[in-house]
Amino acid sequence: MMPMRIFISSVQKEFSEERAALRDYLRGDPLLRRFFELFLFEEVPAADRRADEVYLDEVERCDIYLGLFGNEYGFEDADGISPTEREFAHATQLHKHRLIFIKGADDAVRHPKMHMLIQRAGSQLIRRRVNTTAELIANLYAALIQYLERTELIRFSPFDATPCPRATQGDLDEERVTTFLRRARRARGFPLPDTATVSEVLAHLNLLDHGRPTHAAILLFGQQPQRFLISSEVKCAHFHGTAVAKPIPSYQVYKGTVFDLVDQAVDFVMSKINLRVGTRAEGPQAPVQYEIPREVVAEAIVNAVAHRDYTSSGSVQVMLLADRLEVWNPGTLPPSLTLADLREPHGSVPGNPLLAEPMYLVQYIERMGTGTGDMIQRCREAGLPEPEFALTDGFVTTIRRKTGEVTREVSTQPESRPESKPESRPESMELRVLGLLVNSPLAKHELSQRLGHKDISSSLNKVIRLLLAEQSIEYTIPEKPQSRLQKYRLTEKGHAALAALREGIP
Hints:
This protein has helices at 16-28, 32-35, 51-61, 83-93, 112-122, 133-150, 174-188, 198-204, 215-221, 258-270, 294-307, 353-361, 371-381, 429-436, 444-450, 458-469, 492-501; strands at residues 4-8, 36-39, 64-69, 97-103, 127-130, 208-209, 212-213, 234-238, 250-254, 275-277, 288-290, 316-320, 324-329, 388-391, 395-400, 473-475, 488-490. It is of the alpha/beta class. The strands form five sheets. Strands 9-8-12-13-15-14 form a six-stranded mixed beta sheet, with helices on one face. Strands 2-1-3-4-5 form a five-stranded parallel beta sheet, sandwiched between helices. The longest helix has 18 residues, at 133-150. The N and C termini lie far apart (75 Å). The relative contact order is 0.08.
């Protein structure tokens, strides 16, 4: 086959070093030079033609348009338009495959027209910011390999299906696999019996490659997934204002399996957003209503964790601001989907199919592509604007909060009785666990279910250990702490602690 042609925009002196480095790299790489050839204007021999005609002709001939955008806008023609902008517009009009790399992170120093061009490009495709030539080369290599995979010129297994280097089955948590098996049988009728071995479960889920655990196996059931996949953590931050700026009042980095990450990140958000507390007329627990439905928060975070690009060095980021919740992940949409498709019924095209299947089996995600539609519907029912989906340097979901708006408190009392006051933040996990144990002892999995979790989270385990240490709760079978029949009950000290924690709440 004939090599595909790459057109590099911009001949400003600003990029002379980068252009030369890209030329040498692409022509020297044994794989890429088989598939691509580079066009550089400086290598065009002298000819009786206008330079702008040569540029635009080459854009028409190319298969890939590579845009290098920096601080300078460049020479402006009689219409005030630079060659770089005309080339980008021409490539867009011709539906060329476009790759845009932006040098530097400080947009304030850019020429106003270049800043506008960057914004225009960002509204159409994912851009990558780079600071050094080495970063530019690495990001271009990844983009071209992805292009070759997508056009099926080369084929690799999905990242989640490849074996995790240096990992063995000893790095997996057998208890997690056993818990998964029990829950998957109950939730989706998983066909393996309760007596199935860990290896049988993993083999059935295609999570082993010649006996070695895949990346998906480590992410789902690893004892320490971040030991092998450092960026698989989730970073959560809470800002009091509407801008992402330091100092950060609350910042947490969560580690663990994908199930841990989802549970911990959801708990983080739910512990920071507003809620309305009703009265206890019909029971010991007052009904509560969060400003953002838990299902919406969970769906946004699950999507980010399940569909992100795990080859990226970026981590999922959950940012709660005064006016919105933003969930960002280093990933993009599959070629068959657009942002508009997310608002309509659409097929499910998981970026990590072997990771998504077990998450489906324990009801963290759905197969039918209904997640985004459910988010939209639940936001409407809660009186919130519809979620926003966007492609920036990754995929971001934005959920708007009700800023400055008063909602009616949830109440089981007749309207003639006074309603309770809204709380500025929800009950802590400690308070919720103590409250659940008021009437009768409960097992850990029962507590998890009543808290609305899909699995026993590390947050719940931590709270139980704390309450046991404080003697606020105790085992119902103290002589066998690890018994499968073990439950927890409230002590006298626990009743006193619960009363103290509830002070100020009707």
